[in-house]
Structure formats: C-alpha cells, structure tokens
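Dear Dr. L.,

I hope this message finds you well. Following up on our conversation about the binding site, I have prepared a predicted three-dimensional model of the protein together with zinc ion. For your records, I am including the exact sequence and ligand specification that went into the calculation, followed by the structure tokens. Please feel free to forward this to your student if that is useful.
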Amino acid sequence: MRRILGIESSCDETAAAIVDSGRHILAQRIASQDEEHRPYGGVVPEIAARAHAERLTPLIGATLNDAGMTLDDVDAIAATAGPGLIGGVMVGLVTAKALAMASDKPLIAINHLEGHALSPRLADPTLAFPYALLLVSGGHCQLLRVDGVGRYRRFATTIDDALGEAFDKTAKILGLGYPGGPQVEKLALEGNAEAVRLPRPLVGSGEPHFSFAGLKSAVLRAKEGGQFTDADIAASFQKAARECVIDRSRIALEAMEDSGGGITALVAAGGVAANAVLRGALEELAEERGLRFVAPPSPLCTDNAAMIAWAGLERFETGQSDPLDISARPRWPLDPEAEPVRGAGVKA
Ligand code: KG4
Ligand code: ZN
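The resulting structure of the complex is given below.
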C-alpha cells in the first residue's frame, strides 16, 4: 500500500492530507481563512500567503500525528504547484521541497485543476477513463474529456467569469458575505426562482462555451432596482446559472460525443459542484445523454488536500515525480493545446 502526503495552499485553504492506494484518507486537516478575508468580501492574496506561511508547517505535523505516522511512513510528497495565488502556491511548494529533501522522498508537483479533475476517482473506485468532466470552481468553468492522468482535452470554457465567481459576486451584491456560493444556495431555498427575469448568456448558441458576466450585471441591476427580495434574486440567479450550465454542457457533450472517445460518465468537480441544485440538474442531463453521473461528496469538491494527495498517488503509480527545482506556476492550463478564449479562467 502506497501512501502520499498532499499539501494544498493555492487559494484560501491551508490543507494537508495523507491518502493511500486503497483510497483511504488516513488523515486530513483544513485551516480555512474565511475570517481573515471576510471583511474584504474576497481573498486578499497578501493576507492569504502570510496565513499559509504561519499555518502550514504545524498543520502538516498535526496531520501526520493524526495518522500516527512520520514522514518516514509516506512514499512521496505531493503539493499544489499552480495555478493559483502565487504567494500561497510558493509557500506550499517550498515546504514540500524542504520535506522531500529532508526525508529523501520524491516530490510530486500537482496542477490544482488536476486535483479537482481526479478527485472523483478517489471517491468512486469504479470511475474509469475516459469521462466528461465539468470543472466548476472559483476560477474556472470548463468541460473537458479526461482521457487519463495528465491527458485532458478541453471542449468548453468561460469567455468571461467563472461560475464560482458569479456566485461570489452575487453574494457580495446581496451583502451575504464570503464565501458566497453556499450562502446564495441557502438563501435561494427561501426565494421564488421565477420572480426576477435574468438573462441566460449564450444559451441557444451552437458554440460550446460558458458566459456569466451578463448575469452578474443583471443581478446588480435587480438589487439596485429595489423591488425584489434578496431571496428572490438569489433563487432567480441560481436558476439562471443552472440553465446556462446545463444548456452549454449539453452542447459541449454533443461535441465530445461527435469526437469519439466513448465516455460513459458525466463527472462534476470543483467547489461549485457542491451545489445541490446544480448536481440535481447535471444528474438529469447525464441521464438524458445515457451517461452515469458522478460527483464527489461536497467536502471533496471544495479545495482540500486529499485530492492533491490522490492526484500525487495517481502520478506516482505511473512512475512520475518532479525535480526539486521545479517552479510554481500562477497559470497552468489542463489542456495546453486548447485555443485561448477571451478572459477564460482569469479571476477578475
Ligand atoms: O474549488 P474551490 O474550493 O476553489 C477554487 O479552486 O476556486 O471553489 C470555490 C468556489 C467559490 O466560488 C465558492 O463560492 C463556490 O466554489 N462554492 C459554491 C458552493 N460551495 C462552494 N457555489 C455554489 N454553491 C455551493 N454550495
Ligand atoms: Zn479549487
């Protein structure tokens, strides 16, 4: 049984986990920085980097302790090396390098997006390649075909905002605080999703891409207009967002099916995949297209280190590791061949 220590520090969660090849999460700890960033309504990179630097080393010690292990008991050390806020990524990667050097264990540099992309395989042993992946997080909204470890083909991406960003901005407009996604979902339960007429950007277009900027602006206008309750705006926004995601994903899935490849599952991952309404709608879409629907449990959707340890394990099992002089990468697409589109994957 192989065991990997994983480290995550690319945004506002400082996290460490130990995962084994039997898909057991032997220990995991997450220190959230919500309190630090809440007054600003979003993540402040400088505050995040400093908090990671203060917390990471004791957190790793505590995680090893929880598992009753020392560094001698792990086979390799995996850390997020990008994409993300560069200060935080560097804290995690440099720490991993120091631990790898001190313990003479291999270092595995992980693309954070690959952590999300492979996380469903940690939760579901029967999920085999290739699969269609909707990756929806604070910085990304993409539909990819996952052909294997390190093998991704992008079929759709956002031309402006990421889906999580649209949720977070809606939360900010409604004064719901940070992080916004879960709060919008909660408030939407009390609202009427038909109350506010909001646009569905790109819906009906044959181009398989996503767009959420127009939706966000319409939410702002609805709030400023003063005639709707916050709950009605939240519910109407969530419904519009869901319809955009489903329509755009359907077009992208058609393109994917046309390209061959024999996918059998539609998989959702990333923080927004924790949203129950979206999960329900994706399940229906999967059924419509004769696919199985797979999404990891919510705590594995939002940023965590178990997914980084697991991606490390998948790479390690195929004989991969990285040199100690590898650099952190603020931008690191999963599919480097994909044509760039305006604003894609860039956090505003
Ligand atoms: O994957 P993640 O934890 O971090 C990134 O890599 O970006 O995703 C965070 C994003 C945030 O925008 C957050 O508001 C959103 O995921 N999110 C949700 C929910 N839980 C987290 N959005 C909608 N509904 C949720 N339940
Ligand atoms: Zn993430």
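In brief: The first strand starts at residue 3 and ends at 8.

With kind regards,
A. P.
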